[in-house]
UniProtKB/TrEMBL annotation:
<dbReference type="InterPro" id="IPR024904">
    <property type="entry name" value="OTCase_ArgI"/>
</dbReference>
<feature type="binding site">
    <location>
        <position position="104"/>
    </location>
    <ligand>
        <name>carbamoyl phosphate</name>
    </ligand>
</feature>
<feature type="binding site">
    <location>
        <position position="80"/>
    </location>
    <ligand>
        <name>carbamoyl phosphate</name>
    </ligand>
</feature>
<comment type="pathway">
    <text>Amino-acid biosynthesis; L-arginine biosynthesis; L-arginine from L-ornithine and carbamoyl phosphate: step 1/3.</text>
</comment>
<protein>
    <recommendedName>
        <fullName>Ornithine carbamoyltransferase</fullName>
        <ecNumber>2.1.3.3</ecNumber>
    </recommendedName>
</protein>
<feature type="binding site">
    <location>
        <begin position="265"/>
        <end position="266"/>
    </location>
    <ligand>
        <name>carbamoyl phosphate</name>
    </ligand>
</feature>
<dbReference type="GO" id="GO:0004585">
    <property type="term" value="F:ornithine carbamoyltransferase activity"/>
</dbReference>
<dbReference type="Pfam" id="PF00185">
    <property type="entry name" value="OTCace"/>
</dbReference>
<feature type="domain" description="Aspartate/ornithine carbamoyltransferase Asp/Orn-binding">
    <location>
        <begin position="151"/>
        <end position="303"/>
    </location>
</feature>
<feature type="binding site">
    <location>
        <begin position="53"/>
        <end position="56"/>
    </location>
    <ligand>
        <name>carbamoyl phosphate</name>
    </ligand>
</feature>
<comment type="similarity">
    <text>Belongs to the aspartate/ornithine carbamoyltransferase superfamily. OTCase family.</text>
</comment>
<feature type="binding site">
    <location>
        <begin position="229"/>
        <end position="230"/>
    </location>
    <ligand>
        <name>L-ornithine</name>
    </ligand>
</feature>
<feature type="binding site">
    <location>
        <position position="293"/>
    </location>
    <ligand>
        <name>carbamoyl phosphate</name>
    </ligand>
</feature>
<dbReference type="InterPro" id="IPR036901">
    <property type="entry name" value="Asp/Orn_carbamoylTrfase_sf"/>
</dbReference>
<dbReference type="InterPro" id="IPR006131">
    <property type="entry name" value="Asp_carbamoyltransf_Asp/Orn-bd"/>
</dbReference>
<dbReference type="GO" id="GO:0019240">
    <property type="term" value="P:citrulline biosynthetic process"/>
</dbReference>
<dbReference type="InterPro" id="IPR002292">
    <property type="entry name" value="Orn/put_carbamltrans"/>
</dbReference>
Length: 308
């Protein structure tokens, strides 16, 4: 049922998957969504979230319950990790209790340490560097809308953050034409951009610019995220004037392809990075995108756990 080569693997970033594996995951997610496949398991998923979560927490929980498994919420506030227990100790103990662990944390190095000390699969449920599960949902949504991913032109507007990083990498692997428009001081990390260019397949394109209008011209996908990620709340107000030109509104959307779709990973600050009219408009696929979190994560669980 799952993708055999993914069994017991860690997914700490989107580039831990090959293009072929992403394609297979998207197909599996589509089959699970349609009911064409209905695998069953009795495994246990642990959720260890150091940051707040709605979609990731709920979608993983529902996905595992629908598979017949169980979920344990390892809230740091009520477990010893919140009192300073070393990751190495926590990882080795959890390895004896549960079958798979999804971690949402601030530092990518925390995920790497969990993976180093636990034999069970570790999934990045968001770090400050990447958000691979989100991008799998984005790719599934794009495939549903256009019948393909390769060759699609997509523009990300706003902060060159963790979502932007995974979108650049995932787009490069899948042969997309990716454009990212941000203020100069908030562009994606150069190492991520360079890695994406090394991974890029024939036909892929990666453009980093400060010009939002130029970036959006002819784009089939217009994507945005909040201007201040979790942990950056203190600077949120001061960022607004700098990011205002990158707002996804009807004016900027007019430069995109006439059949363009709008994506947002949520939560949205309406009136800041996206307007009410756009997020509720006919081009918005935000709610399909949010639903698809559950389907791609279910496909990941099936594949990493080796469910037949």
């Amino acid at each position: 049922m799952g993708i055999k080569d993914l069994k017991s693997r860690d997914i700490l970033g989107i580039a831990d998957l090959s293009a072929a594996e992403i394609k297979d995951l998207l197909q599996l997610a589509a089959d699970l969504k349609s009911g064409k496949r209905s695998p069953v398991c009795n495994k246990i998923l642990g959720l260890l979230f150091y940051k707040a979560s709605t979609r990731t927490r709920v979608s993983f929980t529902v996905a595992m319950h629908q598979l017949g498994g169980q979920v344990i919420d390892l809230n740091p506030n009520v477990t010893q990790v919140g009192r300073g227990e070393p990751i190495s100790d926590t990882a080795r103990v959890l390895d004896r209790y549960i079958d798979i662990l999804a971690v949402r944390t601030f530092k990518q190095t925390d995920l790497e340490e969990f993976a180093r000390y636990a034999q069970i699969p570790i999934i990045n449920a968001l770090s400050d560097l990447e958000h691979p599960c989100q991008i799998l949902a984005d790719l599934l949504t794009i495939q549903e809308c256009f019948g393909k991913v390769s060759g699609v032109t997509a523009t990300f507007l706003g902060d060159g953050n963790n979502v932007a990083h995974s979108f650049i990498l995932g787009g490069a692997l899948m042969g997309m034409k990716i454009r990212v428009a941000t203020p100069e001081a908030h562009q994606p990390e150069p190492a991520i951009v360079e890695k994406a260019r090394q991974l890029a397949v024939d036909g892929a394109e990666i453009i980093i610019t400060e010009d939002p209008v130029e970036a959006v011209k002819g784009s089939q996908v217009v994507y945005t995220d909040v201007w201040a990620s979790m942990g950056q709340e203190a600077s949120a107000e001061s960022r607004i004037p700098m990011f205002q030109p990158y707002q996804v509104n009807e004016e900027i959307l007019a430069h995109a392809d006439s059949d363009a779709i709008v994506l947002h990973c949520l939560p949205a600050h309406r009136g800041e990075e996206i307007t009410e009219a756009v997020i509720e408009g006919k081009q918005s696929r935000v709610w399909d995108e949010a639903e698809n979190r559950m389907h791609v994560q279910k496909a990941l669980l099936v594949s990493l756990l080796g469910i037949e």
